[in-house]
Amino acid sequence: MNRLRRLRATPAIRDLVAETRLDASKLVLPIFVHDDITEREALSSLPGHYRWPSAEVGEIAKEAEAVGIQAVLIFGVPSSKSLDRAYASDGPTQRAIQAIRSASPSLAIFADTCLCSFTETGHCGIVRDGAIDNDESIEMIARVAVSQAKAGADFVSPSDMMDGRVGAIRSALDAEGLPTAGILSYAAKYASAFYGPFRDVAESTPMFGDRRGYQLDPRSSEQGLRSIERDIDEGADMVLVKPALSYLDVIARASERFDVPIGAYNVSGEFAMIKAAAERGWLDEQAATTEALTAIFRAGARFVITYHALDIARLMHER
Ligand code: PBG
Question: 184: Cβ below 6 Å to ligand 1?
Fold first, then answer.
């Protein structure tokens, strides 16, 4: 008899033959920073997460580093809607980058590069006569990216899904003497229902319409692959598939096809589902989180941006 169970007989054998292994150095912790608060504020829709004042955000960076996390992704939220706060040298994102850089010099710092928290409309681009002006938007997004790189971000991370933004950002960074700043592009970003908790936190819910005119249609994987290919051609150093759990097929196809690191964004709604079910006693949080993250890596992700990062890293650190 072909006894396949031999490979599953004991913990030692199972660990030996396992193909994937969770590792804190593969997790990226998202961090929210608000322009004018003086104390951290707990986020009810993202349990365990806070909005940080830039003066204190170094604390969470150090905490992450202490349990083996080596990368963070920063989201700046302004106190009033205005595009100049997106690129100001003392804007929320820029100040947070500087604070984290001085608290934890060796952390890799990614900055989310988008306009949606800063526009009155809540859209990821600039609206003119009721429509998003793609080409005006990418000029502004490039300007934001340059300011983030100047503040010290290792990688800028455009999440707007406008056409041509990666090329525009690469040219702007090079022209400004920032050739070592990298680009992690949210290349296959889908128009998803799983961003709900994030939009509350980032105050970025669109005032009218939705994002289906720029984010990808969930019914298509080929558009995701084309979008990744295009962004690589324009100079993306790494790319993301987002969300993660409903798009494992896209992660798998992309990681087979392209020779750049494919990351995955395990988004706010995916986190919220596990948290809420665990709170009700319907799921074991640790087991469900471990399984979900393992699945994303098994599909082919090289790293995962996740709100579970600290919990899981702490757990692995204790073992
Ligand atoms: C901003 C942005 C979004 C997320 C990351 N960057 C929201 C959106 O596109 O509406 C979602 C993150 C999450 O849900 O965790 N463009």
Answer: no
Q: What is the pTM of this model?
A: 0.97
Rg of the chain, C-alpha, whole Å: 19
The pLDDT of residue 88 = 97
Q: Of all protein residues, whose CA lies closest to atom 6 belonging to ligand 1?
A: 159
Q: Are 90 and 144 in contact (CB under 8 A)?
A: no
Q: How confident is the model at residue 201 (pLDDT cuts 50, 70, 90)?
A: confident
pLDDT at res. 169: 98
Give the pLDDT mean for 46-59. Answer: 96
One-letter amino acid for residue 204 of the chain:
S
For CA atoms 10, 12, 17, 22, the dihedral sign is positive
- pLDDT at site 44: 92
Mean residue pLDDT across the chain: 97
Known catalytic membership, residue 189: yes
Specify the residue with its C-alpha closest to ligand 1, atom 2. Answer: 159
| Total H helices, total E strands in the chain | 12, 12
Q: What is the spatial distance between Cα 130 and Cα 206, in angstroms, rounded to a whole number?
A: 12
199 alpha carbon – ligand 1 mean position (Å):
7
pLDDT at 204: 86
**Cα distance between residue 272 and residue 47, in whole Å:** 8
Side chain identity at 147, as an amino acid letter? S
Closest CA to 170 of 209, 212, 141: 141
CB 172 within 8 A of CB 110: no
Q: Residue 130 has which token pair? A: 């009721």
Query: What pLDDT, on a 0 to 100 scale, did the predictor assign at position 39?
Result: 96
Query: Cα of 272 to ligand 1 centre, how many Å?
Result: 14
Total Cβ atoms within 10 A of residue 283: 17
Q: Measured from the CA of 124, which atom of ligand 1 is nearest? A: 16
Question: Region 200-207: what's the mean pLDDT?
Answer: 86
- The 10 Å CB-count burial string (b at 16+, else e) for 153-174 is bbbbbbbbbbebbbbbbbebbe
Question: Given pLDDT bands bounded at 50, 70 and 90, which one contains residue 200?
Answer: confident
